Amino acid sequence: MNLVYNHIISKRWSILYITVGVCFALLLIQKMLFTLLFNEKEMHSIIQNIFEKNFNKAIQFDDITVTLGGNLKLKNIKIAPTTDFNDNYNLISSKKTIIDLNYFKAITGRIHINGIKFYDSSITIVKNYGKSYKEIFDHISTNVATNAKYISYEDFYIKAMGNCIYNENFSNDKLKINIGDVCISISMDDTTFRYHIKGKVKPLDDRLDEGKIKFSGYVYFSDKMKYQSSSHEIYIKKLDMSIANYFIKDYSDLSLSIRGYFYTNAMIKHDNTYSIKGSVDFDNITIENTGVLPHYMIVSNDNVSIKSSMKINNDLSHVIIDYVSFNDNEIDINASLQFLKDKYFNIAVTTNTIDLDDIDYLQIIPDVYGDGTFALDIQCDYDLSHNEMRSFKIYCDAEDIAIFSKTKNNAMTYIKDSWLKINGDIKKININACAKHQKSDVMLRSTINIEKWVPFTSTDEIMVQSKRLSAELLSKLLLKGIKELYSKAAEDLSIGYNEIYFRQKPLGKYLSNNIINTKINVDTLTFEKNAHLKNINIELLSNKGLVTTQSFNCEGYSANYNFSVNAFCNSDYPTMTISCAVNNFDYGTFLRDTGLKDATGLMNMNLNYGVSGYRLSHLLQNGNGNFTLNIANSVLNSSMIQRKIIELAKSCNIVVEGGGWHCNRIDVAINHTADRLILQSLYIDTDNASVSGYGNYSIENGLSLPCNATFYKRDGRTITTTHRASFSIKGELLRPFIVSSFPCGKEQILLFDVN
């Protein structure tokens, strides 16, 4: 039995050996046949011709051989990005390349390439500054043509294994991205182009993990190779986000630095419509503001997830966003949108109740944090075909809001115990708010009665009330607002000609179509200590572009107060005038209320300002006004003016007595013309010193006010010694300083700082 079994086994092995031997012999015969059919020198020329004619690429390689299977093997291949090697880099370098030949055509001596396989390859892609990404793609695929003699793209593939290097040259920097373990597979037939790409992206920071990428998809063509549709899958895991800094720096004006990981898993389909569905995630994202010193973190180590599903047609005439969700564990925002050109537009945005104390990782202003809660819900459905709002809803609720700063050396609360509520529908919007700062409080109540949405037409009632308001806070806000306004005007001036007139601008349209009645009531406007004004009431009416002061009242220190605003805004070229006056103001009592003893004096002040124009730059071109201030028979005792005069004298080694100075008068006259403030006169006359000056201010050059000071030393009423000094007032309008000259030193004396 064993002999029979062994005989059978031996016979089977013999058959196997014979079969293997025959196959090997056939392969050798086949290789000899292909070697005879395909002369190496001839094939070398043919391969070069194929790459030049079909791919518009120059090629170099060491040698070419025929494999046992009848394919061509190229050693140490180099493919240029164009028809020559003048670009100083190789598009593809490969130690071993297999050109897959059609077997049945090959045995007849004909060459037909089924595909190309690159092993142990290196792919290099370069984008130079000033070139678009489309140009780079076109540069790689330029003049790719079908040559039926050797290649038919009805059935063709390319595979590459190795690594890929992407170099991008920016205006002042270079980016190099190294992708390892790359596997690229591209295939096509008469109707379909398929691709699959995967690899590992090395981070710019070696301390981070490698990222993974995977792209795959299809592109479908018609019979005439005309594009029909496509489908793409994008998968990215742990991509180093610092790569984005190169693009932010070169393609935007933002001064930001980003760190963290980027993830995405998305599906994109396209025929006549783009269909996009997927997610984008950020892991430990940190965004640093590098535009200021010291730098600060806008976002610190946050994890964010964004999910979306949308459809968008080619010309953006139809957009459907089924949902967009933003979530970082503390903030949850959901939105949807539908838009059909000339038909309808609707949008919905909702948030969770956000606890501001829990999002201290988010800072818009350095070292400034918030407390309280915030929630938002907006829904809008608009009929574009009839320009009608079909439905509208808005709800905003901010409770117990506090904004504060905290640093190692300082802590400050900007607002506290504040809240905001907005409720509205298609006919009415109610806005109620309250803000408190230290001992100041402001209450806002506004009702917008909507008559029509396009153009927006409404009757608005605005009430601003304050039981107690700090004059220092109000002046800082007003001065900073004016400074910002003129700064924007300077930016607008550099833009050049703008032919969009005021009535065509959003603000112009709003003022021209709406009635706005604004009432401002301040019970007490506080200064230092017990100094205050009371019962300040202002009513302004904007009646479809005509703005007038309906009433004004202010009480305090036996003075007469006047304030008026007149503007005609229902015009392409609107005009506005502002005037205010304070007459017979009991300056002495005011100073005594601030804590100064033995103060006396009477003050008068007048301000007139006018401007015309339809853009912000006209503030610097057409604005004009004048300001006068007169204080007579006052006493300077520890006041700011007195302290700065004494400090100036000290810098000149001049001894001036302190105590109470009798001030005969203080006169200031300023003229505003276009972009200049002209100090026509400055005169301070006291028993101990007098100061006079003149000059101007411009945004470009700041303050330039040459002044002279005379210091008196008295024996009773008799002047025994006189000292004179010259100085200039320089710097910004809201931060001026004294620059002393001969015989004084070069010491700078800060007058005040409103910033």
Which geometry do the CA atoms define? elongated
User: What is the count of helical runs?
Assistant: 10
Oligomer: single chain
Per DSSP, what share of the residues sits in E-state strands of 2 or more residues?
Answer: over 45%
> What's the end-to-end separation, in Å?
109 Å
User: What do the pLDDT scores average to?
Assistant: 86
Helix content: 10-25%
Q: Any low-confidence stretches, pLDDT <50, length ≥5?
A: none
The chain-level structural class is alpha+beta
Q: What's the β-strand tally?
A: 38
The rounded Rg comes to: 40 Å
How would you characterize the largest beta sheet? 38 strands, mixed
Write the layout of secondary structure elements.
Blueprint: H1 2-37, H2 40-55, E1 59-60, E2 63-66, E3 72-79, E4 92-101, H3 103-106, E5 113-127, H4 133-141, E6 155-169, E7 174-189, E8 192-201, E9 211-221, E10 227-240, H5 244-251, E11 256-270, E12 273-289, E13 296-313, E14 318-327, E15 332-340, E16 344-351, E17 354-355, E18 368-383, E19 388-406, E20 411-424, E21 428-437, E22 440-453, E23 456-466, E24 469-470, H6 471-495, H7 506-513, E25 515-526, E26 532-543, E27 546-555, E28 560-568, E29 575-586, H8 587-593, E30 602-612, H9 619-622, E31 624-636, H10 640-651, E32 661-673, E33 676-686, E34 689-698, E35 702-715, E36 718-732, E37 735-740, E38 748-750
Parallel strand pairs: 5-6, 23-25, 24-25
Antiparallel strand pairs: 1-3, 2-3, 3-4, 4-5, 6-7, 7-8, 8-9, 9-10, 10-11, 11-12, 12-13, 13-14, 14-15, 15-16, 16-18, 17-18, 18-19, 19-20, 20-21, 21-22, 22-23, 25-26, 26-27, 27-28, 28-29, 29-30, 30-31, 31-32, 32-33, 33-34, 34-35, 35-36, 36-37, 37-38
